[in-house]
Amino acid sequence: MTLIRQHARAEAASILTWAVLLGFVGFITTSLWRYVLNSGALDVLDDLLRSATGTLKGLIGTDGASLTYLDGWIQSYVLGNWLSLLYVIFTALFVAGMVTREMDRRTMAFLLSLPVTRAQLLVSRWMVLLGALAVLHLSHFAGILLGLAALGEAGHPGRYALAEANSLLLYLFVGGLMLVVSLFIDDFGPGTGATLGVGLGLVFVHMSTGDATGALKALRGALPFSFYDVQAIVMQGEVPWGDLALLGGGSLLLLFLAVRLFQRKQIAV
């Protein structure tokens, strides 16, 4: 618990800043719905997005849901794929600070001289990542609730909360991939670039293959972002047990792999 508290304190300012940002984004994107609806622009957006292809379709795709309905708006804009850019950037920066930053500062040897094992150190930092993602998603969800209150609409908070939980596990999984990659890089600058590259690369491939067929379609289905089906959750009320289990289990497997790699990592004193 001491390791968790220490790392949480070190990252508190960053986590708070991102939480405020995500809460604000959740509130603004939700509360704008009626304004855009009354302006008549939603019909134009509906037609545009129905005919959209490629990256635009992947970025803000409605999957056939009308934006003139609140849930259609929340699915596409409030909880849509574009939000992944914010979560990926936060996760990449956070993960780069877990090991690579300490290696770059030459402080890792000191940390390991304390009465803790490598596994304990890495798992404690992974737990802080989990807590940070939970805070960010709770803040975004609170922003949605405030937006609904401003609109005077009930919406489906239970479905939105489930989508947030699915999203949390998605970025915990992506964070695990980033962590494994970062363990091979000891310089903070290149390490941050690598974690950002992993996350943004996955986002780009997922968004740009929305109309893919054949092998590319199969590749897209294997990407972690394919296990976040916000349309099925928000519009149909489905509980994605399979996606939640795969992302949760995959996150733990990636943590196990990261711990094994970290235990074998050469660290200069």
Account of the protein in words:
The chain has 269 residues and is an all-alpha fold. It has 13 helices and no strands. It has helices spanning 2-39, 41-50, 54-59, 70-78, 84-96, 100-104, 108-113, 118-151, 157-182, 188-208, 214-222, 230-236, 241-264.
Topology:
Layout: H1 2-39, H2 41-50, H3 54-59, H4 70-78, H5 84-96, H6 100-104, H7 108-113, H8 118-151, H9 157-182, H10 188-208, H11 214-222, H12 230-236, H13 241-264
Helix pairs in contact: 1-4, 1-8, 4-12, 5-9, 5-10, 8-9, 8-13, 9-10, 9-13
Percentage of residues in DSSP E strands: under 5%
- Whole-number count of domains: 1
Mean pLDDT: 87
Global morphology:
globular
Cα separation of the termini: 26 Å
Oligomer: single chain
Structural class: mainly alpha
Pfam families: ABC2_membrane_2 (PF12679)
Keywords: Membrane, Transmembrane, Transmembrane helix
Organism: Symbiobacterium terraclitae
Protein name: ABC-2 type transport system permease protein
